[in-house]
Specification:
DNA/RNA_pol_sf; about 20% strand; SH3 type barrels; alpha+beta; 6-stranded antiparallel β-sheet; Gag-pol polyprotein
Length: about 650
């Protein structure tokens, strides 16, 4: 047909689905919508059954009877199925519509029975608790029994009262219940009897509200597979296969191992695949995999000795950016591809690794890897890589800074060249583009490097370099927005301060009873505090005190502590556009401020010290911390605060 109509037929290259972008994008959109619906309902793909075929009439479908998938419902139990004093309705979940009859398809989350009913009351706006259904790949089965109406529940089981304020909606146009039995694969055990549960002992679980459907879509879109199986079952399967092949070929190309027979007196280490999707504003998402060794099984003194490996400090990065604004330095960014694999230093220890199942070699059946070079996951891997990079930079004529061991520079102040290293990320600053170009060429001769050009993002901070106006700005707006979405605070109301000055947090505000303990167990307090600590250390000195305060209660947080954490997020919501702005014409002298309050810690009566160092118009270094010991007068706290170390200088 194509030849007849003069159409050139082309196919996509294997493993390159992006060549058929329109179809792939449409498939992805459909999958994301379905995934969000499942997660919003608190269910998994184990309950997915057959769906009706779409009618090809060309007429727009009538959507008046459509209901939210996974909604809570009350299904009527006919009097023939219950005793006089039994509940008249049963709480189920809405799964869809019957294929061959006018009725609703419902599921009981306690035993996974599917039933059909006409008389149903919907609670579409009500909170939905998460119900977990195990993987469907098990060989076990359970039956779906569709009676004329919903089977009656055990008479000893209570029916939860629903909020009277919720709007009740009922469909009267659906009728004609039909008996039907079918079988669905599931990993559940045989049907279990529903046991009565005392309401007073029922554990509270986190709820999933319909307002966060978009949250689930975003979260799952950016989710990284945890296992090879998850990667192979994902829509991005071909991308992950290509990334795994590239990683394995890189390991082979670098001659990372040799095949040997397993020594009887040596313990084998195992491997694990790490999957990561890297997003960029200007490029398509990059799929990266890493084959790592489980170094947690290594024994000190046998498998490794020294492990220390330095990284550049955030304070140093900010100081260098202030220096770049002052002297109008060009800033470039480079990344080392598979950094640890570039190290050609032989390991001091003999380490044997079991090859991954996905790449077992028939030629080397029964043999194992003896590592010749470092790989990710080894405890000594970072140290070995740092030694290698240190030699390369010193061979070029750079000297290591005394203030920060991960900063290298030339001794010639006229032709300034500075390199800051954070594992495999390199920040290069110079007043001459030729200096940067020559260093890049030197590094690319020695290592597998990727030139990222003018720096835009480094260590989680967005960098905006406007050399014409002589200013450099750093911010974390994107990270803050993702954090707000992650902790379901994207729709919160903003506040003007990160902490309420009228509330003094104490340990006594921890959980008071079992109900409070259970509720706080389901609160992501540690994750939220960790996220806020990261933000406060990178670009937001204005929340340092508030974050330091809430971090003191991580062992036993209560509702008041959690409210204080949410207060910080609300403050960030209204100030996410705040930036640190280093200007060429601003005060170039480093100016420091330090102060402390007196016995402000309500539990230990220790004083809290705060300090900030400014340069070129913005904060370079800051901190807020409790003093080590209590003091008995205001003069002493000021003396202690003055001696707190401040910013780091490049010397």
């Amino acid at each position: 047909m194509t030849e007849k109509h003069g159409i050139a037929h082309q196919t996509t290259v294997p493993y390159v689905p992006e060549q058929n972008g329109v179809a792939e994008r449409a498939n992805r959109t459909i999958v994301e919508k379905a995934r969000a619906m499942l997660l919003d309902a608190g269910l998994t793909k184990a309950i997915i059954g057959k769906t009706p075929e779409e009618l090809w009439t060309g007429r727009k479908s009538d959507l008046r009877h459509l209901r939210i998938f996974g909604s809570n419902v009350l299904a009527h139990i006919p009097k023939e199925k219950r005793d006089k004093w039994d509940p008249k309705a049963k709480k189920l979940l809405f799964m869809g519509y019957c294929e061959n009859t006018k009725g609703y398809r419902l599921i009981d989350p306690s035993n996974y029975k599917i039933s059909k009913s006409r008389d149903v009351v919907f609670f579409e706006n009500q909170e939905r608790k998460k119900k977990e259904i195990k993987n469907e790949n098990s060989a076990n089965h359970f039956k779906i029994t569709n009676d004329e109406n919903v089977e009656k529940e055990d008479s000893s089981t209570e029916t939860e009262n629903l909020d009277e304020s919720e709007q009740l909606t009922k469909e009267d146009g659906l009728s004609d219940d039909v008996k039907e039995t079918e079988e669905i694969r599931s990993s559940t055990e045989d049907e279990q009897e529903v046991q009565p549960v005392r309401r007073s002992l029922r554990k509270r679980k986190p709820v999933v509200r319909e307002d966060y459907v978009s949250y689930f879509t975003i979260e799952q879109t950016e989710e990284n597979p945890m296992t090879v199986r998850e990667a192979m079952e994902s829509p991005q399967k071909e991308n992950w296969i290509e990334a795994m092949n590239q990683e394995y070929e890189a390991l082979q190309r670098n001659k990372t191992w040799e095949y040997v027979k397993q020594p009887k007196d040596k313990k084998l280490l195992t491997t694990k695949w790490i999957f990561k999707i890297k997003h960029s504003e200007k490029e398509e998402p990059r799929y990266k995999t890493r084959l790592v060794v489980r170094g947690c099984a290594q024994i000190q003194g046998i498998d490794y000795y020294d492990t220390y490996s330095p990284v550049v400090r955030y304070t140093t990065i900010r100081y260098l950016l202030a220096l770049a604004a002052k002297e109008n330095l060009a800033i470039s960014h480079m990344d080392v591809t598979a950094a640890y694999l570039n190290s050609d230093l032989q390991l001091e220890e003999d380490i044997y690794v079991k090859p991954p199942e996905e790449y077992k070699s028939i030629q080397h059946e029964g043999k194992v890897w003896k590592l010749k070079k470092t790989v990710y996951g080894l405890k000594q891997g970072g140290r070995t890589w740092n030694k290698k990079l240190d030699e390369i930079l010193k061979d070029y004529g750079l000297t290591k800074s005394k203030a920060d061991p991960c900063v290298y520079q030339t001794s010639n102040t006229r032709d300034r060249l500075i390199v800051a290293v954070y594992v495999d990320d390199h920040l290069i600053l110079s007043n001459k583009q030729t200096e940067i170009r020559e260093l890049k060429e030197h590094l690319q001769r020695k290592l597998h490097m990727k030139d990222l050009g003018k720096v835009q993002q480094f260590l989680g901070m967005n960098i905006m370099n406007n050399s014409e106006k002589g200013k450099i700005e750093i911010h974390q707006k994107e990270y803050i927005e993702k954090a707000l979405t992650r902790f379901r605070m994207e729709n919160c109301n903003s506040v003007s301060t990160p902490a309420d000055p009228n509330i003094k947090l104490t340990k006594e505000m921890g959980p008071k009873d079992k109900a409070d303990i259970e509720e706080m167990k389901n609160t992501p307090y540690l994750e939220a505090v960790g996220t806020l600590l990261y933000i406060s250390q990178i670009s937001r000195p204005d929340i340092a005190y508030a974050v330091n305060n809430v971090s003191c209660f991580c062992n036993n947080p209560g509702k008041a502590h959690w409210n204080a954490v949410k207060q910080i997020f609300r403050y960030l919501k209204g100030t996410k556009d705040y930036k640190l702005k280093f200007c060429k014409n601003a005060n170039t002298n480093i100016v420091g401020f330090s102060d402390a309050n007196w016995t402000n810690d309500q539990d230990s009566r220790k004083s809290i010290t705060g300090s900030v160092f400014l340069g070129n118009g913005a904060a370079i270094s800051w901190h807020s911390k409790r003093q080590r010991s209590p003091v008995d007068c205001r003069g002493k706290i000021c003396s202690v605060s003055i001696h707190v170390p401040g910013s780091v200088m490049v010397t």
